[in-house]
Amino acid sequence: MDEPISPPLAGEAEPGSVRQGKGSAFLGRKTARAKSERRRRALLEATIRVAAREGIRGIKHRAVASEAGVPLAATTYYFRDINELINDAFALFAVGAQQQLQVFYEALDLVLDTVPDDSLRRDSPFRPILAERLTQIALVWMRDQFSRRRDQVLAEQVFVMEALRDERLANVARQYRQSWIDGLERLLARLDSPLPRQDATLIVNVVLGMSYDLLLEVPGTETEVLGASVERIVQLALGVQPD
Fold this sequence. Notes:
Elements: H1 15-19, H2 34-54, H3 61-68, H4 73-78, H5 82-113, H6 127-145, H7 150-163, H8 167-190, H9 196-216, H10 223-238
Helix pairs in contact: 2-3, 2-5, 2-7, 5-6, 5-7, 5-8, 6-10, 7-8, 8-9
């Protein structure tokens, strides 16, 4: 008897249904049967794990099939070539990462929902306390990313670097980055930022750079320094002077 399909992340469609949408990033063979979709998804998830562990060069048909526990022929049945497999793996990764990011933004929204509108203004005396609250939420999220979700962060870096050489991957990478900026821009507008779009773009660029440093374990990115850096980013975004 077929085992049940693993449910997608909250709000996430299965790859087959996403692929049918306009402008979808998924390229591989469409599937109609649940068992086929499970196998296709297993291959994509295996590709993400191989990418995190061995990099793009480690993504080979045999390695992915072995990681997924499926016959070797399955990789060429569902994907025309290794590039299509990599593309769809990144697209699936981006869908899941965007859902995780949405949960983070919703947590920030919940904090802002408890604050009177007058206190969200840039000149509010409540601003430093709000900055402290948002700093703590951001720190919890980042520490989670680099501990429990470290392999996902590694996979992200692998796919983004490969996107510099592959235009199809670059399209997925641009959409992924834009989802970061769009959500952050909306939050910064609530926080009375005079330039929410520019601020959101700057923060995303800084956080991506910090991610790279943390993965490399560059000196100066230990826990204490990370906390101070996140605090300063939030202060700058909210227009709060440091103590």
